[in-house]
Design goal:
The chain is 53% helix and 4% strand. The protein contains four helices and two strands. A hairpin with a 7-residue loop joins strand 1 (73-74) and strand 2. Its main location: cytoplasm.
């Protein structure tokens, strides 16, 4: 385990930001590796992923046509929780604002 006690507050905040970025990067990398493994496995059996999963390019095109809003705010306690700024505020944003802090502190750069 890493001893964090000698780090200053600003060092810890920077470390947290770097960790969140690295976690997202590694999750995406793991996902891509898994997709490649699955493609190789189904190809060795004579299928494609779309054959096995029952997807088609028509469904993919329909999904791409309906764009989703980009996340504008991120929960500092859990980097996977985001909010587009549309609709009702999530509970984590409400609790953050209740501490007297600004919504701008949650904005994704």
């Amino acid at each position: 385990m890493i001893d964090l006690s000698p780090l200053s507050y600003s060092d810890l905040v920077e470390l947290k930001k770097n960790l969140e970025v690295e976690i997202v990067r590694r999750k995406e990398s793991e996902k891509q590796n898994l997709i490649a493994e699955l493609q190789n496995l189904v190809a060795s059996k004579g299928f494609s992923l779309s054959d096995v999963l029952g997807t088609s390019s028509d469904k993919k095109a329909a999904k791409k046509a309906a764009s989703t809003a980009k996340a504008q705010f991120r929960n500092p306690a859990d980097a996977e929780q985001t909010w587009t700024g549309r609709g009702r505020k999530p509970q984590w944003a409400i609790e953050f604002l209740a501490t007297g802090r600004s919504l701008e502190e949650l904005r994704i750069a």
